[in-house]
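ugh ok fine here u go
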Amino acid sequence: MGIVITMNDAAGTTPPPTQTRKRPWIVAVVGGVASGKSLVRQILGEWGAAAIDADQIAHEVLREPGVADQIARTVDRAVMGPDGTVDRSALARLVFGDSPEARSRRRKLEAIIHPRVRDRIRQELAGATHANVPVVVLDIPLLLEVGWRDLADEVLFVEAPEEVRRARATLRGWSDEEWRQREKAQWPAERKRASADVVVDNGGSPADLRKQLAQWWQEKTGGGPLRQASVPP
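structure:
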């Protein structure tokens, strides 16, 4: 079974909250491609955490009035589908990768999308405070790469060996080329790990991951109880 590894203070961890904390503890979950970030979010959600999904917000932003036209004008008209909306598959093919053209298109896309996404994230964080949830999970795939570390109290890195992550990506139907493009669009896993405050090991079973997260949850909620139905044996 893996263990929770607490990193040193260089990454900027602030003290854990107590039960009298007036706002939720905000944790950003990061990791390599197919490392299991969604599973971490799911488990913490079972225990009472709220989640903010940057990808979902970005998809909603793409449907906002005028955004699709701005992307077509600025990035490439090939991203437009026959129905006048952004074809996300076509967009991914154009912006993922390490070629100068892909990097240029990605920067243009980010200049349009990121300010809107960040504003929405801040709105949802404010809503979570009013809802009195103990923990908010930020699922932002490129949080470190785009410099959004300031949105979180803590960064939690989900570790899994590359061969395990590749196998999971294959099960999702990704080709080797899709894997390479998405890996190139992110920091290497080792760099993300070094920037994290906490590391959990997801190279084993979901039960092992739950046990590590249970320890983390107890620490971050000031010893608050887990929902008993989800406590690992």
